[in-house]
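Practice problem 4.
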């Protein structure tokens, strides 16, 4: 299968306040290795960081001065993609945009944005249509953490063919309770889009991060 057949756009926005985190689906490791943490891409300021991720690729960030590691993941599960280019070819895939969030190397929360899409040509580009989408796999993985206000939206709606661009967005707030005190720890948005130009990956916008005392 040609590699460029399954390229998608994965834009993940993570706005963090105190102890924010987030993640993806599949066999997510419960912890990072020392080597992985050492090789993580350092983030020193809360700016947008462009990142191109092709299908199956991952990128691990480390927020400087904190114990937070954010792994961006871009996945696609093809269903009968065409074996040769054809304007008449249609095929379906389930795309996933999410991230794994780790504190001190341990997985703490997961946000998964899944969308099933049908393409009307032999490549992963519009024109296409969204068939369904869900948050399957979204979870917290540490005591005291919980998701609040999880939701998904799309443009256009399910079953509507789009010729230029379309997107599915997942969002939610991560809460944490510690010693009887509870509060929001971060607001997360995962943005998955398909366009006529194919995949143009972008990555995290990380907002205010304060290292816990």
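Answer key:
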């Amino acid at each position: 299968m040609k590699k460029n057949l399954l390229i998608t756009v994965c834009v993940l926005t993570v706005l963090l306040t105190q102890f924010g985190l987030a993640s993806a689906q599949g066999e997510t490791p419960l912890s990072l290795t020392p080597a992985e943490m050492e090789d993580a891409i350092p983030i020193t300021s809360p700016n947008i960081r462009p990142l191109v991720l092709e299908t199956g690729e991952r990128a691990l960030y480390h927020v400087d001065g904190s114990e937070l590691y954010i792994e961006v993941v871009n996945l696609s599960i093809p269903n009968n993609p065409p074996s040769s280019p054809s304007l008449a070819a249609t095929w379906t895939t389930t795309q996933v945009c999410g991230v794994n969030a780790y504190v001190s190397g341990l997985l703490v929360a997961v946000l998964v944005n899944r969308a099933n899409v049908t393409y009307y040509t032999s490549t992963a580009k519009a024109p296409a249509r969204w068939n369904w989408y869900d948050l399957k796999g979204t979870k917290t993985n540490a005591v005291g953490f919980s998701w609040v206000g999880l939701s998904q939206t799309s443009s256009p709606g399910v079953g509507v063919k789009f010729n230029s661009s379309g997107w599915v967005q997942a969002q939610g707030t991560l809460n944490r309770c510690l010693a009887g005190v509870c509060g929001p720890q971060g607001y997360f948005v995962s943005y998955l889009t398909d366009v006529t130009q194919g995949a143009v990956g972008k990555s995290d916008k990380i907002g205010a991060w304060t290292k816990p005392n």
